[in-house]
Every structure is written in C-alpha cells, then in structure tokens.
Write a structure and sequence with these properties.
mainly alpha, Rossmann fold, Tyrosyl-Transfer RNA Synthetase, 2 domains, 3-stranded parallel β-sheet, two-stranded parallel ribbon, binds tryptophan, binds iron/sulfur cluster
C-alpha cells in the first residue's frame, strides 16, 4: 500500500500582478510540489484587508488576476486544490475560536509584526485585525490539517505561532490538529532592476504579464556590476544581477562565454542585456499564451475557483465539526 500523500498548504495575498520575485519565491516551488503532495493553494483576500482596509476597490480584480497568473505559470486545478479564502466562511469561525485561546503577548512579540509596523509607517496598522494576522493564518493552515507550509523566511514567525496555537488547542480540548512544519523555499538570488529586493512598492519588478517591450525596456534599465562604469572596464558577473537572470534563462555555453568575456571587457552590458532580455521574453512566451487563453474565457476561471472552493470547503467543514465537538459548543 502506498502511504497517504502529505498535505501541503500555502497562500498569497492578492496585492497585485505576480512578478518574477513571487514566481521564484513561491509559485515555482508550488508547481513542483503539486507532483508529489496533496496540495491546497489559496488566495488570502481577507489577509489583504489587514493592510489595505481603506482602499478595497482592486482586491476582487487582483484575486482573478492572481488565479490567472497561477494557472498560466503551471499550477494545475487537476493536481491541486485552488481556492479563495473569503469564500470559505469556516476560516472565520476557526479564527474566532482560536483568538479566544491566543495570548496577545505571542502576537505582540512577533518580529514580522514589529517590522511591518515600522516599514509601512504610511499606513495605520494599529488595528485588531493586523495584530491578529497570524491567528487567521493559523486558522487557514490547521483547518486543512496541513503537514507542511511552503513559505519564505519572513513568514516563519507566523508558522511558529501556528504551531503554538495548534498545540495549545490540543492541550485544552484534545488532539484535533497536527503541528504543521514550515518548508523554506530555496530561491535564486534575482533582485529588482534597481538591485533592491523585487517588490511592487519599489517599482522595480518584472511582471509575468509584462509585454516583450516592457521587458526590453526594464532590462535595459537594469543596474549591472556597479563597479563597471565603461564598456572598456572589466566586469564581475558574480555581483551582477543581469548575470543571475542569465543563470535562469540562458544556455550553459552562452553563460560561460559571457562570464569570460565580461571579465576581460569583451562584451558590453548593452549586448549582454539584449541576449538576456530575448531569452527571458522567450521563457515567458508560453505563460503569456496561457494568460490570453484564460483571459478570453472567464467562465473557465470561474469554474476552476468554484470546483476548488467546493473541495476545500468540504475538508474545512469536517474539521469544524471536530472542533465544535472538542470545544463542546
Ligand atoms: N501571510 C502569507 C503571505 O503574506 C499569506 C498567507 C495567508 C499564508 N495565509 C496563509 C501563507 C497560510 C501560508 C499559509 O505571504
Ligand atoms: Fe553584468 Fe553582463 Fe554587464 Fe557583465 S556584461 S556586468 S554580466 S550585464
């Protein structure tokens, strides 16, 4: 008999179109995992409200765009359960129950919480919902009894709190939940075009949905080896963001040539970038084709969301029956 597949769950907040940082930071890894695990992937639209509660006008469109990005990049509705958090009200019920047993001190000392409050100083994040972000996330995860949660390092404090909450629940009411493990995503070191972390808010991102012209123009503006001022100066690919991109999109032989030629100033950054931009455009070609397909067929996208949500809801309802009976309420 084959062992039961491990269940993996992860989510993304619908804050805008997906960029290459999101692709390599999470999605590419999800696409691999769906071959091996029982995967649940969802759009955390309630979590998007924790920081954009004043301006909610774009969230619904971002949700749809994000599902299209996922499908176009290769997430498969046959292999994975794909759904939207706010369509499954059971998450909110479990969130409420978990909030009764979560000490506020666990939330106040959360390093991600403190970081965000300082970093996003233009927003008033002194809300109850923002403090409770990890409690909602814990509900998202344990309602499906997930074994593993693929996340970036910034989310590890949240998965730790999830484990603590699950343990506390089990101690009080009897064992209902497994303690999920964070699975850290290995990511290539690509940065935004200005060499900062790729992020929508820095305006330095290359999006999966960018047109070939967008890509050419962004790549031409990419900062290369900062020490290389002129074409006649030798460059150092080891510190060059363009070279990191080559490692993802260019064949090995060309990479070796560029590596040598850059170091003895035989190739200039303009030409080097042109080669990379062409390869990147080619790699994104099939994703763009699929996007066009789904954009022209909104009913298929809708159907995928409904099917995935129904499947997830059945699991969530079953867990909630166990939860209510454990709490005797
Ligand atoms: N907090 C996650 C992020 O911003 C999104 C998220 C919400 C999530 N609920 C989750 C991720 C549950 C994993 C599991 O990236
Ligand atoms: Fe970077 Fe290429 Fe310029 Fe070398 S030639 S510094 S690898 S962009």
């Amino acid at each position: 008999m084959t062992a039961k597949k491990k269940r993996i769950l992860s989510g993304m907040r619908p804050t805008g179109p997906l960029h290459l940082g999101n692709l390599y930071g999470a999605l590419a890894n999800w696409i691999k995992m769906q071959e091996e695990y029982d995967c649940f992937f969802f759009i955390a639209d309630w979590h998007a409200l924790t920081s954009s509660y004043e301006d909610t006008g774009s969230i619904a469109d971002y949700v749809r765009q994000m599902i299209i990005d996922w499908l176009s990049a290769g997430l498969s509705p046959e292999k994975s359960t794909i759904f939207v958090q706010s369509h499954i009200k059971e998450h909110a019920e479990l969130f409420l129950l978990l909030s009764m047993i979560t000490p506020t001190s666990w939330l106040e000392r959360n390093p991600t919480y403190k970081d965000q409050i300082t970093q996003l100083s233009n927003k008033d994040l002194s809300t109850y919902g923002f403090l409770g972000y990890p409690v909602l996330m814990a509900a998202d995860i344990i309602i499906y009894k997930a074994d593993g949660v693929p996340v970036g390092v910034d989310q590890v404090p949240h998965t730790e709190i999830t484990r603590e909450i699950a343990r506390r629940f089990n101690n009080f009411y009897g064992k209902v939940f497994p303690e999920p493990e964070a699975i850290l995503t290995q990511t290539p070191k690509i940065l935004g075009i200005d060499r900062r972390k790729m992020s929508k808010s820095y305006d330095n991102a290359i999006y999966l949905s960018d047109t070939p012209n967008d890509i050419k123009s962004k790549v031409s503006r990419m900062i290369t080896d900062p020490q290389r001022a002129r074409k006649s100066d030798p460059g150092n690919p080891d510190v060059c963001n363009v070279f990191e991109f080559h490692k993802l999109y260019t064949d090995d032989q060309t990479i070796n040539e560029i590596n040598e030629q850059c170091r003895c100033a035989q190739i200039g950054c303009v030409d080097c970038k042109k080669i990379m931009a062409e390869n990147l455009i080619e790699a994104l070609g099939p994703i763009n084709e699929k996007r066009k397909y789904y954009e022209a067929r909104p009913e298929i996208v809708e159907e995928i969301i409904v099917t995935g949500t129904d499947k997830a809801r059945r699991v969530a309802r079953k867990t909630m029956e166990e939860v209510r009976s454990a709490i005797k309420i």
